[in-house]
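Quarterly update, task 2.4: glutamine-bound model.
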Amino acid sequence: MKQAKYVFVTGGVTSSLGKGIVSASLAKLLQARGYSVTIQKFDPYINVDPGTLNPYEHGECYVTEDGAETDLDLGHYERFLNVTTSQANNVTTGRIYQHVITQEREGAYLGKTVQVIPHITDEIKRRMKLLGESGKYDIVITELGGTVGDIESLPYIEAVRQLNWEVKTEDCIVIHLTLLPYLSTSKELKTKPTQHSVKMLLEAGIQPDVLVCRAEHPIGKDLKKKIALFCNVSPNAVIEALDMPTIYDVPMAMFKEKLDKIVLNKLKLSSAKEPNLDNWLGFLTRHKNPKHQVKIGLVGKYVELPDAYKSITEAFVHAGANRECKVDLEYIHSELITDSNVEHKLHHLDGILVAPGFGDRGIEGKITAIKYARQNNIPFFGICLGMQCAVIEFGRNVIGLKDAHSTEMNSKTKNAVIDMMPEQKKITAKGGTMRLGSYWCELKKDTKAFRAYDKPKVQERHRHRYEFNNKFLKDYEAKGMIASGINPDTKLVEIVELKDHPYFVAVQFHPEYKSTVETPHPLFIKFIKAAIEYSKS
Ligand code: GLN
């Protein structure tokens, strides 16, 4: 049984400094040295999980194998490490309080006043140690959401302080990520905000062991020394984190700065074994030296915020590298697509992806885009709502069911080709009640889906309420839209594709959640392959 060591990553000065990427990069380096590592994220907001947030709030909601709706940083962890995460890897204030209040109602603290300290902080610490106590990991990296000084982060910082005292010095360290702003008038990086944010940590009783400093220009030895002096760390524990061309360059940048070595030394773990990053570097080389180029249109309604489609954009990076192809993504607002402008908006694309989503805003634009892809033999990939729209489009324009629709958008339609299952209809609560997580899908031989996966049965992750209505399946198959993937237990349709189209595949699940640097998703690979062929035809 392994005794886990704990690395906490806090943020200072501003948000959006990339704690998730720094955490994932450090984890990658430690994993490449042979350590088993996991990462968890603690978010200070009061939602029990991010499933009820719209993507404009914190970007995409990432779904794990076990059906947890989680922060998008978990997607980075899986993509970098190529290992799965679970509900235990993402905790929110809402979840902590929900647990403590349930306990209180059950009488667990009878006679006592239930307080932030110790009850909330105890529950935070219990969750912080949960994965470490599983015996599976050498190192557990915990990313604390938010910025030091935020009111809502206080209990987490306090929990880290307590935990730091409770375990041996070499079993727990704190990395603080900050920003060194650059003043262009005086042409210098400023350290004061970093000093202040470290002071704030010190006031809370935490001395950071390592400082990772984001900067637009090299920091230099003297500045590192100065930061070290003011913040009580050694100069080699001041790590320069310059802006990188891609997030996938960050592990190598951190390796050059010896972040992994410093962390291992502080944790009194051996750094004798050099990291094996062959696969990672192979991916980077392919990613940076493409032989082909395609333009893919991503049709969705959250296009103002690319983080809303994070896993999809990263899946294109992985599949593009696999095919040695540069994938230019063009975000196209589905609300702005109409019958009269669709040609103008889409004619130059080598492939069209219609994205997941909820509600009826932008639906007709998605359906119009799909019709255009179908009729013009442009490679098409539909995901979740994207598949449902493909089914609606085919129902209306090929089968002739003029009012074909999903009951999500039109509860009165006579042709509910997408509908809720009876078990779903009974549910009224909105949090965590969709079809979530991993389900089996059986693939039909001699289909595009089967050729992509090259196996008869796969597991994919879901996040939706509505399903293909099997009442219509015969009519669809007779006209050429076939169900090439079916759930063996419930017979729900998981994949549809067109027989007479170079590449028209749409899936009810979310393949993007399972694409990683080392195992790009087969459906994304085949879609890119089809787009390359289309671009050359
Ligand atoms: N709104 C659709 C449903 O609930 C699709 C969801 C999605 O695209 N993730 O079934």
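Highlight for this quarter: The two ends are 57 Å apart (CA to CA).
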